[in-house]
Amino acid sequence: MTEFSLLAVLLVGLLGGVHCLGMCGSIVGIFTAQLSKPSPEPSPASGGWAIRLAPAGVRERHSSPLWPFHLAYSGGRIASYALAGALVGAIGQAGLLMRDAVPVQHLLFALSSLMLIALGLYLAGAWSAVRRLEQMGGGLWKRLQPYTARLLPVNTLPRALGLGALWGWLPCGLVYSVLLTALASGSAAQGALIMLAFGLGTLPNLLAIGLFWESVRGWVQSPRVRLAAGLLVASFGVYGLFKVAYTFYMHGWTGACHVPA
User: Fold this and answer.
1) Residue extents of the structural domains in the chain
2) Which of 192, 169, 190, 195 lies closest to 96 in space, CA to CA?
3) What is the mean pLDDT of residues 146-153?
């Protein structure tokens, strides 16, 4: 079911633009507002490509592209997702080594499928219970948040990369839901791959928000877009539940276990 999971989480990231807009839109907006006319030469003091900040209240038209900074920011964020996926995948792998236990892998896949349904309802605006998952990471974020201030203003690509890596641990119900799929994979490598696919799915949204904020905001907030995205994501969850139920029906409780004897 790995291919199914990769496709599902890729679409969750891609279609979760509504959540990205609310969760990270303001962050990326502020990040974009700080960026002004890039300096054409590396700054000796910073050791990298520097950018000049516009004076307060003054807006300048960018003469150089800002996408390298947004790519660096998202690169750090996606790297954190992949690391988190590897960690939970390793935890899942340790749990699956219990040979005498029930088919934990399928139960975890069923749970992740239920979370996909919950995500679909959330994206469609029908249910907001996913937000409660964000409270789980509050303690970790309180420890990491002070370090973000040290990377501001973002005037080099390494700073953008570091800021993205920290923001990758921001409490997010969407991320936590997909982590359940990484946990169910039962492999550190597959867990990292699942979260990498999810992160790549979010990349177009975050780039669009950062580079074309005014153009995409109305489209992403469209009720029809939200409903279509939510129904598609939920359909993956329904399909996943069907696959798990069919496996148990065909092979029974013991025969459904994927762990070799």
Assistant:
1) 2-36+65-255
2) 190
3) 85
